[in-house]
Amino acid sequence: MSILTLVLEASFVVQLVMGILALLSLLSWWHIFSKFFTLKSALRRTDEFEDRFWGGTDLAALYDNTRRNNNIGLEKIFVAGFTEFQKLRQRGGMELSDIMDGTRRAMRAATQREVDFLDKHTAFLASVGSVSPYIGLFGTVWGIMHAFRGLANVGQATLATVAPGIAEALVATAIGLFAAIPATVAYNRFAHDVDGLANRFDAFSEEFLNILQRQAAK
Asked: 90: which DSSP letter?
């Protein structure tokens, strides 16, 4: 009994369950690869930007150079904060505390947008990881029920008559685990990376605000 034979000879409900799980697995793998490269790029660009920022580069020059690029992560937070800071300073007549509060709000909003972007689709992976085993279990229970109902037409139940039905039912559980395990592992990894980036964004925002406040106070 090959796996393909068990799938093809399974009942319609079990085949439907297997099809749903296969679709969930394909979608989760798509999001896993997409999110992997997105977070890898965000981590690399964050490291590169921090090196430039703390390398003694003039803030105005760094701002002019950064805003022309396709920004991501820390770069967008820096551009949003410096843009708001310049705009509020040019208005005139504003207290320094008001300027800094406006800059802080702009950076906080940019940080939230970036975290939401980096965290996109991770909830789907969490759902696949938690729901797939139960969907597979439903297919298994249904398949076993179907196998035992078939025994009513058999004069004598033997292992040879029971095994195919139970085996095809257990395939649903196996597919459910195949879909759930990678999704769960990927979700935990991506959630850890996103939390790490969010902490770096918050720390940078506070340090950058201190630098802007010292410049504005001169």
From this structure: H
Position 121, amino acid: H
Cβ atoms of 155 and 62 within 8 Å: the answer is no
d(CA 215, CA 211) in angstroms, rounded, equals 6
Q: How far apart are CA 201 and CA 111, in angstroms?
A: 7
Q: CA–CA separation, 70 vs 170, rounded Å?
A: 49
End-to-end alpha carbon distance in the chain: 81
Question: What digits encode the pLDDT tens for the residues 15-26?
Answer: 888 889 999 999
CA distances for 103 relative to 10, 107, 110, 154, 186, angstroms:
62, 6, 11, 78, 35
Condensed to tens digits (0 to 9), the pLDDT of residues 90-145 reads 887 778 888 899 999 999 999 999 999 999 889 999 999 999 999 988 888 887 77
